[in-house]
């Protein structure tokens, strides 16, 4: 794992922005294409699993295309809310309040904002994004793994996200979201892997707010 203190600031910022365009475990990325067609009901099952997540907390590791890794805690609350809380050394935050995604950089007192639908994570967060309409199954080579790629052909600038689920009877819909693969419009790929998933936990809406560093620095 790369040490945060040794990462150039611009690289660190790019890596965190990459949380909005993320990827699958190496084992899945190198699996040969399965000769058998994925079960027709798997896409419906994946959609049901996503809609079945009311709240979730999980530990995450995030790796960019250069192999640099960050870790932290992810909090999700449907519809549309997510928070990437990074560990020590990354004085930044990625958070969505249900309408907009924010990249908050406390070191340089900057905030970037864009609509939740305008990134690959829109497939996970945006309640108006029809995963079944824009999604297709990707052969995973395993009966226990469901891989769904979502892209909007009319909006290639939104990027592509491939969500990976593993069959787990204790997870919503019987499928556990373990990671997702996303490419941004510039084909930049980031990998986010989840562990220690907890569903149905109490999460206050205040978890998806943030202290605006621009105000503390005199900016509005």
Account of the 3D structure:
This protein is of the alpha+beta class and 220 residues long. The protein has a domain at 21-68 and 117-201. Helices cover 16% and strands 37% of the residues. The chain contains six helices and eleven strands. Strands 6-5-4-3-2-1-11-10-9-8-7 form an eleven-stranded antiparallel sheet. Strand 5 and strand 6 (110-115) form a beta hairpin. The longest helix is centred in the N-terminal third of the chain and has 10 residues, at 42-51. The model is unreliable at 1-12 and 21-38 (pLDDT under 50).
Number of strands: 11
Helix content: 10-25%
* Count of discrete alpha- or pi-helical segments spanning 4 or more residues: 6
The run of helices and strands is HHHEEEEEEHHEEEEEH
Arrangement of strands in the largest sheet: 6-5-4-3-2-1-11-10-9-8-7
Low-confidence stretches: 1-12, 21-38
**Terminal CA distance:** 37 Å
Strand content: 35-45%
What overall form do the CA principal axes indicate? globular
| Structure class | alpha+beta
Mean of the pLDDT scores? 78
Sketch the major β-sheet: 11 strands, antiparallel
**Taking Cα atoms only, what radius of gyration do you get, to the nearest Å?**
17 Å
